[in-house]
Specification:
The protein has 193 residues and is mainly α. The protein contains 11 helices and no strands. It comes from Heracleum sosnowskyi.
Amino acid sequence: MDTACWNAVIVGCTQNGYYLDSLRTFNLMRRETQVSHDFITLVSVISACGNLELLLEGQRSHGLAVKTLVNADIRVQNALIAMYGKLGENNDAKEVLALFRSLDFEPNEIIIATIISVCTQLGLAGFGKQIHGYVFRFQFHTNSFVIAALVDSYSNSGKLERAATVFRHSSEKSVAAWNSMMSAYGFHSKAFR
């Protein structure tokens, strides 16, 4: 089997929620064949690590990406940012910010929502405000996950009115945005209006 065949199995497992099978297949590929991985392999493996909350495996995959120079690929960088964002570890959150600062392409909604959440975890309200600027520059202010992340960020930094303003001005109020806003009012011991 070649890389494309292995990738078909690994990607299929990851996309269908069989994350552990994806990692097992990847380990089998590395152990029993001379076939080398590529960016497609690593994106799926990194995603599986994030979904399983396997920090050590994720860090190993990151190291493998760096060692084989695949980490320069945009899709691998996106997967790493998403994985570290899901894991929520403070040191990893700093890694996410470092990856974000080194991006040489325009971020997508998933990256922006993840970065906002990371800023919230680290208590970096100033950096979170800068990211809010990205939201408007890249027209992500209609994305429900971005809105929910912004509401959480402003609420956690003590700016309930700013969180409410973001919520009120969002064009589509998703369940995630409503949950974030209700949590914000609860967190600040205020009745939801």
